[in-house]
Amino acid sequence: MSTPTRSTIMDTNSFRSEHAAGLDPAARGLTQRRERVLGGSYRLFYRRPVHLVRGEGQYLFDADGRRYLDLYNNVASIGHCHPAVVEAVTAQLQQLNTHTRYLHETILDYTDEILATLPAVPAPGTWKAMYQCTGSEANDLAVRVAREFSGNLGVIATSEAYHGTSDLTSGFSPALGSGQPLAPTTRLVPAPDAYRQGLPPARLGPWFADRVREAVASLQADGFGVAAFIADSVFSSDGVLPGRRGFLAEAVDVVRAAGGVFIADEVQPGFARTGEEFWGFARHGLVPELVTTGKPMGNGIPVSGLFAREDVLRAFSDRVPYFNTFGGNPVSMAAARAVLRVLREEGLQEHALEVGARFRDALDALAVAHEAVGDVRGVGLFTGLELVTDRSTREPDRDLALAVLEELRERGVLTSVAGPHGNVLKLRPPLVFAAGDVDTVVRALDESLTALGA
Length: 454
Prior knowledge:
Elements: H1 25-37, E1 52-56, E2 59-62, E3 67-70, H2 83-93, H3 105-115, E4 127-132, H4 135-150, E5 154-158, H5 167-170, E6 186-189, H6 194-197, H7 201-221, E7 226-231, H8 249-257, E8 261-265, E9 290-293, E10 304-309, H9 310-317, H10 330-345, H11 348-369, E11 373-379, E12 382-390, E13 395-396, H12 398-410, E14 413-414, E15 416-418, E16 424-427, H13 435-451
Parallel strand pairs: 3-14, 5-6, 5-7, 7-8, 8-9
Antiparallel strand pairs: 1-2, 2-3, 4-10, 9-10, 11-12, 12-13, 12-16, 15-16
């Protein structure tokens, strides 16, 4: 039996047993306890795992009181332990928490507010909402709906995509590694990576549409047809590839012409992350048939959602009852409402656009001094920094990227890597990341690259 390929999102920046000797007794004891009682599929970040005990805004604090700047976390998207979320959840917990088979106003109030952020659908259509607890559940349901609507089975995703851990979603999440086989109804297309493909920005859309067209032909030839193309519109697991506004539209047209739908997985690019738009797909002038979200929706409280065009959802909901015990519960809905309110009141979308642009300008300046920086790309507060052994050949430098992560950790900055080669620093802080934090990160990167001779 062949050894499974390591998962790019789970194994690339992970603690392994051979690192235990370098830990202090307290940390070693905790890792040993984990090994005794938790399943072997779990992973820890870093060769010296961080023992976190508290969070506040864009900062995390370990058991020794050391502060870290969180450059990775879109779960606590409006900042760790935001008072508005804490207060909303506490108040609701003191009143009631139950499921959606009883009447309750909070789920309806939230739904009115979130659906108002979505683009208009062709008249007389409208949007409908269904709630779950995780992005995996939302994407699982979205594909079930797409299959009922289209009458087809095939799903198209990108070559390093991650869309969930359920039996269905793991079948089109290649970032989980070869130990998790893809479904026979899945077709993968290369990520729209203009840097690595050597494409001018204007050619990226047609090139990507051609790859999707090939996947459509393969699914049709095997009798599966096309149910859906699912994509995170910043292609974060593929290496943070937002591309130019609008480039994705041509590929979506190809899918629709084949009878399929577009599922916009907004777990990564949604909720003001891109700065340019509230939703990532909106950068491309698209109106998806199905929109899914999760992590940032509740700022750490488990809640996710499927927002569907009514005509698409009806093919499923008119035939199949659906119930999720904890999906849409009053406590989660209270958290979600608080997140929306904070995004508006604190102007975090505009903040993401402004500070993100400043961040990438500073990284571009850093690249002048460090030949190992091959590319800086991103949108809003989502940035990819690609490290290479040689700028002319663009040879990816995974070892350097992992070493930089460890150096950054020692300098109080936490992040991780993305992309098929594990050489792209995935810089995705909470949306309260400030202008002063830019200087902190760039200084830590400069020091880390210098220490490593890069």
